[in-house]
Prior knowledge:
Layout (H helix, E strand, L loop, with lengths): L1 H18 L9 E10 L2 E10 L4 E8 L8 H8 L1 H15 L8 E8 L6 E5 L2 H24 L16 H24 L3
Helix pairs in contact: 3-4
Amino acid sequence: HYDRAQEMAKAARVQLDAIGWTDAFREGNGETVVIAKDGDTYLRSMVDWHVSPTINYDLKTSGGSLAPHMIGRKAEADGWHLQAAMQERILDILDPDSAGRRKWRFVGQENWAPWAIVAVELDEHWLTMGRKAIEMAVGIWRECMSSGRWPAYPPFPVTPEFPGYKEAAWLGREIAHEDRRIAADHLMGG
């Protein structure tokens, strides 16, 4: 495992330098624990790599594809936006002068040769969605702490939402199939 980790680190360094993220995992501090009191609620997180008051990195490795066309689903499913929003909330309490200027950079690296990385910087849309979820979670936490009631899932059957991207892909497939059928009929004189 050690040899593999060394190969991954060397490959990541070359790729990070090539994209201009030369400070990533080189300057600053690793695994920086940040804790702040937000009203009566303590918030805690660990920043993977804190370069400065405004630049933060996180390394994510995967045995699956981290190709650019797939990374959005991976980032959302793994809660990268939630992590960034929580850390932002804490750091904004600790360092309000840097609020609104922070960058959240994620480095996804595949754990097989050639150890490819994808560099991701979350934009305002991602952070807004993360902030909304964190605000709701903190509100629920506060309510549960004050009431002493910790509700579970609903005590009735639920109907899950069908993923919109899957529906769009299927509808596109149906349309393509119909287009091919029409073209084949036309070629056959139909």
